[in-house]
Automatic annotation (TrEMBL):
Entry keyword annotation includes Zinc: yes
One of the record's GO molecular function terms: diaminohydroxyphosphoribosylaminopyrimidine deaminase activity
Ranges where the CMP/dCMP-type deaminase domain occurs: 53-175
EC number: 3.5.4.26
GO biological process, alphabetically ordered: riboflavin biosynthetic process
Superkingdom per UniProt: Eukaryota
Function: Monofunctional pyrimidine deaminase involved in the riboflavin biosynthesis pathway. Also has a reductase domain that lacks catalytically essential substrate-binding residues.
Protein's recorded name: Riboflavin biosynthesis protein PYRD, chloroplastic
Pfam families documented for this protein: dCMP_cyt_deam_1 (PF00383)
Keywords: Hydrolase, Metal-binding, Zinc
Pathway: Cofactor biosynthesis; riboflavin biosynthesis; 5-amino-6-(D-ribitylamino)uracil from GTP: step 2/4
Keyword Metal-binding appears in the UniProt entry: yes
Length: 401
């Protein structure tokens, strides 16, 4: 990535406004002005002076910066960093991609000599170990910052408070837990995988207003900025039931600029000898993983398609496998009459396998001979932390289990 420093720009004068939870919900306007930043640097550098802002303000700015790399960093978390001196933002950066320098490195380079005796704000605890990149704690120490404000401690056991301890041992003051809930929501998938070893699972489906699950996606699903396109951008993998392959004409893909497409995890449970894949799958071959419970032959043969044998195919075993592959998030797209997906969803509430639900509600009455519904155990489910927004033809509701 040439000149990977993310510098303040003229547009960042908006930083004078409230960058609270509303800023997180609008997702930093994912599109051509967002993920392109994962690949190129910004120009027209200006220095933004913020009048009497507090620690929370700058951590919210870190979160906004971090979201610039949405869909690019997995299995790493999204992280943003701001360097502030005398009430003035003198450096900014975010982690653009796994294997590339972390947010602190970009922000310190952006600040240059102004980092000395400044305060560094970072949405996630700086690392203190050598991995694919050197430890960020040493970069902060060498830059001679005087204070570090951390949004949340990193749940990764390799890091977990060790970065904070290293900074304090070096004489740098450290404040932890500023806007912690906002920072946790930013990396909810990463945190879940660190704590459980499994990906964070989102269940998505579409309802008619009489409660029937339909096979429909909202307007904009095939365009940049559409909610479904953004969902795919945010998730590392999407589960495709084998019995749906003959009912679709293309695989779900994100249309966001620069999006890293999710893995398509095809479930071939009970397939006797061969699995017939539609021809359009060929261009997605390197992103397709077929999970089967016995030896199967892919027809037609496609180079790049990976076949993995699991002794017992359940949602639990699928998530265990995906977690070991480094996937932090999985999308379960429940569309219409999929018997195999309905079977996968049986008992998931008991095992806490699904964390989030996204439902799109349409203003039409649907009558079908093939009525599709979620398993009976979902009837008593009550979602929490609900959010809703109106789309052009429907209402989108999100909640947590």
């Amino acid at each position: 990535m040439p000149n990977s420093i993310i510098s303040p720009t003229a547009n960042l004068s908006l930083a004078r406004c409230n960058l609270g939870f509303v800023a997180l919900r609008r997702c930093f306007q994912v599109g051509s002005t967002t993920l392109a930043l994962c690949k190129s640097s910004m120009t027209s550098r200006v220095r933004v002076r913020c009048a009497a802002e507090d620690d929370a303000f700058y951590i919210r700015r870190c979160v906004e910066l971090a979201r610039t790399a949405i869909g690019c960093t997995s299995p790493n978390p999204m992280v943003g960093c701001v360097i502030v001196k005398d009430g003035k933002i003198v450096g900014e950066g975010f982690h653009p991609k796994a294997g590339q320098p972390h947010a602190e490195v970009f922000a310190l380079k952006d600040a240059g000599i102004l980092a000395e005796n400044a305060t560094a704000y970072v949405s996630l605890e700086p690392c203190n170990h050598y991995g694919r990149t050197p430890p960020c704690t040493e970069a902060l120490i060498n830059a001679k910052v005087k204070h570090v404000v951390v949004g949340m401690v990193d749940p990764n056991p390799i890091v977990a408070s060790k970065g904070v301890e290293r900074l304090r041992d070096s004489g740098i003051g450290v404040t932890v837990g500023v806007e912690e809930m906002l920072c946790r929501k930013l990396n909810e998938a990463y945190i879940h995988r660190m704590l459980t070893g499994r990906p964070f699972v989102t269940l998505r489906y579409t309802l008619s207003f009489n409660g029937s699950i339909t096979n429909r996606l909202g307007k904009g699903a095939d365009e940049p900025g559409g909610y479904f396109s953004q969902l795919l951008q945010e998730h590392d993998g999407i589960i495709i039931p084998g019995d749906q392959l003959t009912k679709i004409s293309t695989l779900p893909t994100s249309h966001e600029s620069g999006a890293n497409q999710p893995f398509h995890v095809v479930i071939a449970k009970g397939v006797s000898s061969s699995l017939q894949l539609p021809g359009f799958i060929m261009k997605f071959a390197s992103k397709i993983i077929v999970l089967a419970d016995n030896e199967v032959k892919i027809q037609p043969e496609m180079q790049g398609v990976e076949v993995v044998i699991l002794e017992n195919i359940t949602l639990s075993s699928i998530l265990d496998y995906c977690g070991k592959r480094g996937m932090c998030s999985i999308l379960l797209d429940f569309r219409g009459h999929s018997k195999s997906l309905s079977e996968l969803l049986e008992g998931v509430l008991v095992e806490n396998l699904v964390q989030k639900v996204v439902m799109e509600i349409y203003p039409f009455w649907r009558i079908s001979d093939e009525y599709s519904s979620l398993p009976s155990g979902w009837k008593s489910l009550r979602l929490k932390n609900l959010e809703s927004r109106t789309l052009s033809e429907s209402v989108l509701v999100e909640g947590y289990i």
